[in-house]
Amino acid sequence: MVHIIAAILKIRQTVGCSQESQELIDAELSARVLQLINITDTGVHTQRYQELSKQRLDRAILIFVQNFRRSYVGDQAMHSSKQLYARLSELLGLNDHLVLLNVIVGKIATNLKCYVECEDVIDHTLSLFLELASGYMTGKLLLKLESVKFIIANHSQENFPFLAEYRCSRSRTTFYYILGSLVFMEESPVKFRTFMEPFQQVAFNLRATADAALRTDVAKNAFIGWMRDLRGIAMATNSRKTYGLLFDWLYPSRMPLLLRAISLWTDEPEVTTPLLKFMCEFVLNKAQRLTFDSSSPNGILLFREVSKIIVAYGSRILLLPNGTDIYGSKYKGIWISLTVLSRAFCGNYVNFGVFELYGDRALADALDISLKMTLSVPLSDILAFRKLSKAYFGYMEVLFNNHISFVLNLDTNTFVHIVSSLESGLKGLDTSISTQCASAIDSLAAFYFNNVTAGDAPPSPASVNLVRHIGEFPNLFAQILKTLFEIILFEDAGNQWSLSRPILSLIMTSEQVLSIPQLCF
Question: What is the pTM of this model?
Answer without folding.
Answer: 0.93
